[in-house]
Amino acid sequence: MRITLFTSNNNRHKYLINLLSNCCNQLYVVQECKTLFTGKNDIHYQKSEIIEKYFTNVQKAQNKFFKTKYVNTKRGNIKTLPIVFGEVNNLSLSDLEDCLKSDLYIVFGSSYLKGFLVDFLVSNKSINIHAGVSPYYRGTDSNFWASFDDNPHLVGATIHMLSKGLDNGPILYHAMSNIKTNPFEYAMSTVKSAFHSLAERITNKSIFEINPEIQNKDKLIRYTKKIEFNDEVVKKFFNKKINLKSKSIDNSYLKDPYYLDE
Known about the structure:
By secondary structure, this protein is of the alpha/beta class. The chain has helices at 11-21, 49-65, 115-123, 142-148, 183-203, 231-239; strands at 2-7, 26-33, 78-84, 104-107, 127-130, 137-139, 157-161, 171-177, 222-224, 258-260. It is 28% helix and 19% strand.
């Protein structure tokens, strides 16, 4: 099997690369590289002490669940095309020639895909990993907003078919976690749940047998953009007493949920 992954360059993205390389004969990776110092050196979020503090906590949680710092090249089946974050849509068909001959396409952590590339990926039934529980939370920083809204039962990940709309493709299943420590670790553990569930279902080929479920747009709670994640809301977040057990997870909200236990 050949797999192509569109992703980024943080530890969790490298972890996913290594994990998927065990599921296939050849893995092609289009890797968009962005800063590791969000809040300090990032064009997408405000540069401020409170934003930096938030993402320092994100990094700590990430390092707990994803200790991977390097892509494992020992198996020799990974080919990487590194580019600057945000430039994926500038790639031509010839640039992506090898990457567009796979049996399965997966997107996680890339910038917003447009043009011929998204047309190709949608038509080839690509899978997207959304760090949030659709259809309730879509857009950027979805798990932050679910915690902010005192909806810890809607912190998780959605594995769905890629679509031209953001995070609104038909749902394959949800990935959740039973690890409830702090909001940062809780959210990050659901990402790990998404990775391992997907790897398992690729290996046993059950991922190809799932009937996707069209999202019910009436259930949307928040559709958020990066501009909404600012100093004011992050300060409120830190001042809130978030109780991760305030609302028990109700599987009726979810499609075939997979739970991570560690």
